[in-house]
Amino acid sequence: MKKAEIISVGTELLMGQVANTDAQYISAKLPEAGIGVFYHTVVGDNPGRVGEAVSRAFGRSDVIILTGGLGPTQDDLTKKAVADMFGLELKRDEETVRKIEEYFLKIGKKMVPANLSQADFPERSVILENSCGTAPGCAILFKNDVPKAVAPDKADKIIALLPGPPREMQTMFDNELMPMLKAMSKLVFKSRYYSIIGVPESEVEKRLIDKIDGCVNPTVATYVGKGYVSVRVSYSGEDAEEVKKTLRKYDTLMKKRFGDDLFSTRGESVQENFLRRMKERGLSFSCAESCTGGLVAELVTSVPGASSVIRAGIVTYSNLAKIELLGVPSETIGAFGAVSAETAAEMAKGAAMKCCTDVAVSVTGNAGPGVMEGKEQGLVYIAAWYKGELEVGEFRFGGGRENVRTRAAVTALDMARRLVLRKTPEKKPSI
Amino acid sequence: MKKAEIISVGTELLMGQVANTDAQYISAKLPEAGIGVFYHTVVGDNPGRVGEAVSRAFGRSDVIILTGGLGPTQDDLTKKAVADMFGLELKRDEETVRKIEEYFLKIGKKMVPANLSQADFPERSVILENSCGTAPGCAILFKNDVPKAVAPDKADKIIALLPGPPREMQTMFDNELMPMLKAMSKLVFKSRYYSIIGVPESEVEKRLIDKIDGCVNPTVATYVGKGYVSVRVSYSGEDAEEVKKTLRKYDTLMKKRFGDDLFSTRGESVQENFLRRMKERGLSFSCAESCTGGLVAELVTSVPGASSVIRAGIVTYSNLAKIELLGVPSETIGAFGAVSAETAAEMAKGAAMKCCTDVAVSVTGNAGPGVMEGKEQGLVYIAAWYKGELEVGEFRFGGGRENVRTRAAVTALDMARRLVLRKTPEKKPSI
After folding, report:
1. ipTM
2. Does the pTM of the predicted model rise above 0.80?
3. Are A14 and B38 within 8 A, CB to CB?
4. From CA B29, how far away is CA A14, in angstroms rounded?
5. Of B255, B253, B256, B200, nearest in space to B223 by CA
6. Helix (H/G/I), strand (E/B), else coil: B370
């Protein structure tokens, strides 16, 4: 297996202005090419420290990816540092010059000579196109530690220089660099992603511990999504068909271990999955929210194509709004309080009636901070409505205000999912 | 100025499961202690590579902070690696043993011997309390490169070991480590944060370029918040009063250069600032949203104490919902379309009327992807209502669906802020 390391160049990282998401993005992708990541390094815009980091990396790794330090404001720092290290000249690429000139003509700005330095690349390097910005990247391939203009599958080492801005970096990495790395490593690597709700991450890990501990291929990893737990199963091999078959077996295993809590075998978020199921059944949706303050509606509408499902959402932060906008009887609020199962039920029903939808959910609770009308922080009532069927649940969510709101919002969508699935079961379950 | 570097230990970082937010958090804070950050390094859970990284850091830096690799699952990797490096024994701390036993008694679980290894620390180290978890951290102070149990202001180097989970790490860093670092560096460091809306980051930078380029103390940096631009001005000196006075001068400068686009000199987000101004004036608020799908309400209610201001929010994703829930005349939608200045105006008015609030905003537009009813992606109409006064704006926001929604939501709150400020100007402007 090829060893990789990532060197990120940028004072803004050392100042803590941004997290190193470039290193995260690349690290998550490299296993797909059968390449393991062993180091991340961050250095400032300083040629000496960049050179030193690259030199150390070259001694211990096969794949060295630099991000940042391209472009005129940083004086094309990394290109010079890397070229110097291997005694390579910087050569101007006429095709790139033409593109830069075209770009400045198009935006109607005057080009300064410094801009042209973006067209200079270490000799013998492959230019990586930047389809989202002006600074192209480049890659130097090595054979027996000597820079060589060989095909990627003939190379044994590579140093790639990518821009720092995440969108530019990601596009260039996916389209230009990744195919070269896959050619170099000759392995097929695939992952399947499972989404689970209602089970804490520690418990998910516990139930899969026999597949996690000491397992090298396939590997199983859990991580936390927005209100749910995601499980990634990854496997690499030389035969694509065999890789696919091995991974597919995990569908049965996951279903057996997590039952209905496993809501997606496609890596969907709670809202993506919810929306797809509603669409498949042609159902319309509305919501009534108190403590989540619009988060349920926001989650659902953040998915493109939500408009064919969600008709409306009503955020009722005050009691008066609950009564007037949702038709909750003032007696219900008077007798049980705004944070109660009874009010939650009336809110869901009210949303379904006022918005004329098949499905509706409601959330009312205390997101905190502090106790509210005698209800402790984290106490939330959630109701789901499906064509006249009503279900209400009481929940106690831990963590701060933000966590309570997120957990409450996804739990509301999940409750509606379970209710709908129970009433309209699938012959061949699609998860 | 002391030189720092951060070494993060964790395979989950090298797998790209999480971004290195620990390094970001620490890097953003260290300047407050007058300490500069020169390197970040990430290594896996491997004693050899951890030891090598610490050894290199010790040769070139004064402050070395490790995160991760504490706790029983990682076999207390970093403590052993660091102790070995300096020939220090690991000694059991009885006070910590007592706390761990108490913890397991409380949660009713059986303690295994591995848990007790958390009570072992390199001799001569200071124990850093973990108020959010079980694994304490520790710090080793050095005098002339020799580990010494001296007071922080007498030490010239320090190696600190912090846990990896962000909440535990942050609390320990702030409460336990930061005071030691400040004592070591003997400098006072302060920052002021300014929030600007309606001016792109590149333009903010341009207008401040004389204060950014080549400036070492104070330093000025810009970064992007949720729909606004934040400017940090930082200054360090030996006299607290002088530091404060120097920074205060920037209030006038920023006001002169950004006028009403500068909405906060306290580093507030758009929604925090909006809510504070509404509260100061005792105004009530509601919103009517189409393409933002609940994001305006969600932003406002994400701030604790929002309930005294926001009464309700109505998300009307369908035309029928706009007509029935907000009272938008069907003729208006018929004549001008759902995405129009006329519909936006009726929506804001409708929200104010239906929810009986002083202030209301509305958003209707096409967040994309693709063209909708002949309206291109990014075209958004926003209206603000203040006690009968109505204002409507047409906007074209770039970027993808998420960016259009965020920009639209904060612009709506900003429009209401400007309208209210114009109608109720302040004698002594509070920004």
Report:
1. 0.73
2. no
3. yes
4. 11
5. B200
6. coil
pLDDT at residue B283 in the model: 97
Residue A18: per-residue pLDDT: 87
Mean pLDDT calculated for residue range B47-68: 96
Outline where DSSP puts E strands in B307-370: 310-316, 359-365
Residue B73: closest C-alpha in chain A: A213
Asked if residue B366 lies in contact with residue B380, where contact means CB atoms within 8 angstroms, the answer is yes
> For B273-285, how does the pLDDT look when each residue is reduced to its tens digit (9 = 90+)?
999 999 999 999 9
Query: Residue B40's closest chain A neighbor by CA?
Result: A42
CB-CB neighbors (< 8 A) of B405 in chain A: 302
DSSP per-residue string spanning A116-134: HGGGEEETTPEEEP-SSSS
Instruction: Compute, in degrees rounded to 10, the torsion defined by CA atoms B93, B94, B100, B104.
Output: 150
8-state DSSP, B246: H
In angstroms, the CA B208 to CA B203 distance is 9
Instruction: Show the domains of chain B with their CATH numbers.
Output: 2-185 (3.40.980.10), 188-264 (3.30.70.2860), 281-423 (3.90.950.20)
Question: What count of Cα atoms within 13 Å lies in the side-chain half-sphere of residue B91?
Answer: 13
Assess contact for A197 and A270: CB atoms under 8 A.
Answer: yes
Mean pLDDT over residues B35-55, rounded? 94
Task: Please name the residues in contact with B345: beta carbons below 8 A apart, sequence gap of 6 or more.
Answer: B362, B383, B390, B392
Which positions 322-351 of A are in contact with B (Cβ < 8 Å)?
A: 324-325
- Lookup: tokens for B278: 């509404």
So what's the pLDDT on residue A124?
93
Q: What is the pLDDT of residues A333-372, one digit of tens each?
A: 999 999 999 999 999 999 999 999 999 999 999 998 888 8
State both tokens at B279: 């509260």
pLDDT in tens, A3-43: 999 999 988 899 888 899 999 999 999 988 889 999 999 99
- Half-sphere exposure at residue B241, Cβ-oriented, CA atoms within 13 angstroms: 0
* Residue A9, CA atoms < 13 Å, CB-side half-sphere: 31
C-alpha closest to that of B173 among B205, B139, B221, B198? B139
Confidence category of residue B73, pLDDT binned at 50, 70, 90:
low
Q: What is d(CA A77, CA A93) in angstroms, rounded to the nearest whole number?
A: 18
Residue with tokens 């699938």: A426
| A317 Cβ under 8 Å from any chain B Cβ | yes
DSSP state at residue B423 = H
DSSP secondary structure code for residue B327 in this structure:
-
Task: Say yes or no: A27 contacts chain B, CB-CB below 8 A.
Answer: yes
Three-class DSSP category at B284: coil
Q: State the angle between helix axes of A270-281 and A401-423 in degrees (0 to 180), rounded to the nearest 10.
A: 30
Residues 6+ apart with CB under 8 A from A232: A191, A192, A193, A194, A220, A221, A222, A223
Q: Determine which of A206-210, A212-216, A321-325 has the lowest per-residue pLDDT on average.
A: A212-216
**The token pair that represents A258 in the structure block:** 């997590």
- Rounded CA-CA distance B229/B223 in Å is 6
